[in-house]
Amino acid sequence: DPGILSLDLRLEASRMRTLYFITVGLHLLAAIFWIGGLLFLALTVVPVVRRPAFRALSPALLEAIGLRFRSLGWIAMGVLVLTGLINLLARGVTPALLMDPAFWGGSFGRALAGKLLTVALVIGLNALHDFWAGPRATRALAVDPEGAEGARWRRLASWLARLTLLASLGALTFAVFMVRGWP
Q1: Are 20 and 90 in contact (CB under 8 A)?
Q2: Which DSSP category does 172 fall into?
Q3: In this structure, what DSSP letter does residue 44 have?
Q4: Cα-to-chain-centroid distance, residue 111
Q5: Which residues lie below 8 Å from residue 151, measured CB to CB, with a gap of 6+?
Q6: Percent of the residues in the chain that have a pLDDT greater than 90, as a whole number
Q7: Which of 141, 156, 158, 161 fits 59 for a cystine, CB–CB 3.0-4.6 Å?
């Protein structure tokens, strides 16, 4: 019966639209958590723990907060990647389309390329911070809180965190370009 088939197609389209809105919502929440968390750490936590009154607690406090945020941050990153892929598919971006050079020449393709590059940069910088510089800074500062080695690793970890935030803001900018077009 054509009427039943038409109703089935409308229900399926409605379900797909609902799924798309859910994945977009999850994507936005994960991005808010990620960027908001980075900003909170940089603008609130770090300046407070660097005050003289907290200097003795600073390494342990930063380590505890950093480890907690690291766990949740990588979960957020996973949610961003998964929902991003689902959202691309929902918008009709298929593997075949990604192989078409003309796709990458258009406004959406250029914005997607920028976003993919900045997301890769975010993941790489964050991995360097979380699994290389950050742990080395924590260990060096635990051994000698006033030592040059700890200060050097702390500076490197701090710069990696700043660059991660900048790249994250870049990814956000390209996401806006994907949805709204180039300015």
Answers
A1: yes
A2: H
A3: I
A4: 16
A5: none
A6: 74
A7: 141
